[in-house]
């Protein structure tokens, strides 16, 4: 009998799977790899790659690890979860807002010596 994995997983575990998928998608974007290319390198269909990134709990862990290896060779699951990959750190720095605004008149007067 086929069982839907999303029905048997607790909410917390389902969120963890979704988080893992989001991290893989961010890593792929950070390394400028197309989803279809990563899937091809991992020996998966593009639909399976899509399901991995969306956090489908019914996929085998081996597929997830092959997908990770295809995106970032040598990267471990632990370093992905810690977000210590240099590409992820660089992406986070690029995404952070660097808004620069002019000083108000009061702030300029405060700086006047």
UniProtKB/TrEMBL annotation:
It comes from the Bacteria. This is HTH cro/C1-type domain-containing protein. SUPFAM superfamilies: lambda repressor-like DNA-binding domains. It comes from Massilia violaceinigra. One of its GO terms (molecular function) is DNA binding. The lineage of its organism: Bacteria, Pseudomonadati, Pseudomonadota, Betaproteobacteria, Burkholderiales. Residues 24-55 form the HTH cro/C1-type domain. SMART domains: HTH_XRE (SM00530). InterPro entries: Cro/C1-type_HTH (IPR001387), Lambda_DNA-bd_dom_sf (IPR010982).
């Amino acid at each position: 009998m086929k069982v839907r994995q999303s029905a048997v997983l607790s909410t917390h575990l389902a969120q963890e799977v979704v988080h893992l998928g989001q991290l893989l998608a961010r890593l792929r974007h950070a390394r400028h790899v197309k989803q279809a290319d990563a899937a091809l390198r991992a020996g998966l269909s593009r639909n399976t790659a899509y399901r991995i990134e969306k956090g489908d709990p019914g996929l085998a862990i081996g597929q997830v690890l092959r997908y990770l290896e295809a995106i970032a060779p040598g990267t471990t699951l632990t370093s992905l979860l810690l977000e210590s990959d240099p590409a992820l750190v660089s992406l986070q720095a690029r995404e952070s807002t660097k808004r620069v605004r002019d000083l108000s008149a009061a702030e300029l007067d405060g700086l006047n010596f």
